[in-house]
Design goal:
327 residues, alpha+beta, Aminopeptidase, 2 domains, 13-stranded mixed beta sheet, 8 helices, 13 strands
Length: 327
Amino acid sequence: MVNEIMITIKLFTLKTVDFVEWDAFVDVSNNGTIFHKASFYLYHDSPKSIDFFEFYYKHKKVASCIGSIQGNEFKSPFAASYGGFCWANRVRFSVQEEVIQSFEIELMNRSITKLTFVHAPITYQRFPDQSAEFIFLYSKYSLEQTLISSVINLQEFSINECSNLAKRNYSATASKKLKISFESTENLDESYHILLKNKEKFNLKPTHSLQELQKLSDLFPGKIEFVNAFVDKTLISSIVNFITNNRTVLAFYISTDYDYNQFKAVNYLLMSCAIEYKLRGYKSYDLGVSMETDTDNPMDPRRSLLFFKEHFMARGELRTRFSKELM
């Protein structure tokens, strides 16, 4: 354990945080994503109770963390996909250890009895660094849950390396002259309707309302992309991509109109997205987690979905949730 704490912690709320300064740190950090930005929390239909922590070592900002106190538990993320600490580049192990230990003390002083972090897969990092995860495990955190996300390494991606089935479907759909577009919110109402129908099939609802997706697009111009497929002028399939940082794109929603299954539109869109984002210089395309939603075990993998994503050269990366009882 660290004997002397040299970390200074600053706390802000939605009313006091400097959005420009906070987001600028995330942009140059090692593992920051759109979900680590203060401005991300402006999209909600109703305001959320969010805390913003900054960590300084010898007067230099080395980390930030966004989360919410729910009862006696601090959760990061809250109302976002990924959370935990956003680290500056090349923060030494000893400093990370001090940050984590000082944060625990800060929370205990606020009568918090538990904290929970959900980390993004390692592909979101500029320089792979799992020091924080090691410190969590060493410090008696529980690996409470691990999900599997399917990630395409765009630097290695090639149509020729995809499965024969994916290549055949792509060629067949291309011959039908399916039209696709990378756009903002021009056809958002139609794509959201298809998304709702897809979610209803599994008794689920989208994470975001239609208005929230519109606002996210307004808050982050060019960072929320709606990739749509059309037969003539009819929208039949859509992918909502979050450009999370300058390395990784996340397929947040994938939906299709099942009345047009013969077009294999999702196959075509995923292949087209991988090609497009590779050309733009992104390193990874995250197709999201593939978990069963109707079982008692949240770690049950949906094997058919994993198999489908593997057709596009996607491979598994871990999305981990750490927790610790503080008292």
